[in-house]
């Protein structure tokens, strides 16, 4: 159950009073010279990124989306997560509520991309996985953001250089990928992706910022899937092929990888968690045009996966994928 959303979402940026910002927060922010970030896209990932930035790194955050409804959804995700965190940390309910309020006070909700960009040092994009939509957004941001602002995309599968092509050459020197993992508050890893133009000091700032967010950054060049997905997606497709050939059942493959390789989930459970549509989208994109992966045996589409997606079975989020779940988004298998 999501908590009730506070009715303070205004049409434009609604900055909370300056006294909400504790001095300690500014001191932490100064370590990486970032005082305010904009997170564009208040969905699953954007909400998580905004949360760890405001909570762990203690910077001011402008969370931007296209509508109040999306912003409220993002805010409710953050609120529920912070409440869980502070409830565990503090036995005193009033103290937990005060800490939650303190973090929430650093987050401003906005439907104005330009307005929030104008006052931010780092802009992290977490909107839909669509190259044209991302390019359109970054063009807007380039015109509105201050010259020193660093741009980052949280894309899972699109080449960072293709997205960065939308901005000026000067800005491309301040452009990188920041690939967070779902769920952001729990997952420790961030892949920091450099393109050819990314300046060393920009990269260093992003390393420092992600560390301040409580994450462990790793560095990777702008190659399809970066590190984690490049290994994970072909692994999941190899599991699909194993089942398609009739060599083993999905249940036995999942059990085998959990007990034999020590993985927390088997590949079919993992695909249900990630989303079958998302898994298919990433792989098919690489098969069609991924650098070094185009037309490759490694990325050949899977008829089994295609059929499930065509049937609207997307995994946990739709209530059924390889397995059936107790209800849409339920966390336990039937
Ligand atoms: N979900 C994951 O597991 C995961 C993991 C790592 C990276 N990613 C990447 O993160 C990005 C976001 O994924 P998500 O799962 O949070 O998606 P999501 O659908 O939950 O959220 C996307 C949000 O962006 C908003 N949006 C769309 N266009 C916008 C615009 N022009 N301006 C402002 N807001 C806009 C939408 O309204 C929505 O609220 C994608 O690029 C995805 O590939 C996702």
From TrEMBL:
Subcellular location(s) of the protein: Mitochondrion matrix
Residue stretches making up the 3-hydroxyacyl-CoA dehydrogenase C-terminal domain: 225-325
Domain 3-hydroxyacyl-CoA dehydrogenase NAD binding positions: 36-223
Involved pathway(s): Lipid metabolism; fatty acid beta-oxidation
Pfam families in the record: 3HCDH (PF00725), 3HCDH_N (PF02737)
Keywords recorded for this protein, A-Z: Fatty acid metabolism, Lipid metabolism, Mitochondrion, NAD, Oxidoreductase
Molecular function as annotated in GO: (3S)-3-hydroxyacyl-CoA dehydrogenase (NAD+) activity; NAD+ binding
Enzyme class at the top of the EC tree: oxidoreductase
Site positions (Important for catalytic activity): 179
Record carries keyword Repeat: no
InterPro entries: 3-OHacyl-CoA_DH (IPR022694), 3-OHacyl-CoA_DH_CS (IPR006180), 3-OHacyl-CoA_DH_NAD-bd (IPR006176), 3HC_DH_C (IPR006108), 6-PGluconate_DH-like_C_sf (IPR008927), 6PGD_dom2 (IPR013328), Mito_3-hydroxyacyl-CoA_DH (IPR052242), NAD(P)-bd_dom_sf (IPR036291)
Reaction catalyzed: a (3S)-3-hydroxyacyl-CoA + NAD(+) = a 3-oxoacyl-CoA + NADH + H(+)
Residues that coordinate or bind NAD(+): 41-46, 65, 129, 134, 156, 182, 317
One GO cellular component term noted in the UniProt record for this chain: mitochondrial matrix
Sequence positions that bind CoA: 81, 88, 156
Translocase recorded as keyword: no
Enzyme Commission designation: 1.1.1.35
One BP term from GO: fatty acid beta-oxidation
The organism's place on the tree of life at top rank: Eukaryota
Family of the protein in this entry: Belongs to the 3-hydroxyacyl-CoA dehydrogenase family.
Descriptive protein name: 3-hydroxyacyl-CoA dehydrogenase
């Amino acid at each position: 159950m999501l908590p009730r959303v506070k009715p303070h979402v205004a049409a434009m940026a609604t900055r909370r009073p300056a006294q909400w910002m504790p001095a300690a927060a500014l001191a932490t922010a100064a370590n990486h010279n970032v005082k305010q970030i904009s997170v564009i896209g208040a969905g699953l990932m954007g909400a998580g990124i905004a949360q760890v930035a405001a909570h762990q790194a203690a910077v001011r955050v402008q969370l931007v989306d296209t509508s109040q409804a999306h912003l409220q959804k993002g805010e409710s995700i953050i609120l529920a997560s912070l409440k869980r965190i502070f409830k565990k940390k503090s036995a005193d309910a009033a103290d937990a509520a005060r800490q939650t309020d303190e973090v929430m006070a650093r987050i401003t909700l906005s439907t104005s991309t330009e307005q929030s960009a104008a006052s931010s040092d780092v802009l992290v994009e977490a909107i839909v996985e669509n190259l044209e939509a991302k390019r359109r957004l970054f063009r807007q941001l380039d015109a509105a953001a201050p010259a020193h602002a660093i741009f980052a995309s949280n894309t899972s599968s699109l080449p960072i250089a293709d997205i960065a092509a939308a901005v000026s050459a000067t800005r491309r020197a301040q452009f990188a990928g920041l690939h967070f993992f779902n769920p952001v508050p729990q997952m420790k890893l961030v892949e920091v992706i450099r393109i050819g133009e990314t300046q060393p000091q920009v990269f260093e700032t992003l390393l420092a910022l992600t560390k301040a967010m409580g994450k462990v950054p790793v560095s990777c060049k702008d190659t399809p899937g970066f590190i984690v997905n490049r290994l994970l997606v072909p692994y999941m497709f190899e599991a699909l092929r194993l089942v398609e050939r009739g060599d083993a059942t999905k249940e036995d493959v999942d059990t085998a990888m959990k007990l034999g390789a020590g993985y927390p989930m088997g590949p079919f459970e993992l695909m249900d968690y990630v989303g079958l549509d998302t898994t298919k989208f990433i792989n098919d994109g690489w098969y069609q045009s991924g650098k070094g992966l185009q037309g490759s045996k490694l990325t050949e589409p899977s008829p089994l996966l295609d059929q499930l997606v065509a049937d609207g079975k997307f995994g946990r989020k739709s209530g059924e994928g390889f397995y059936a779940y107790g209800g849409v988004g339920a966390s336990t298998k039937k």
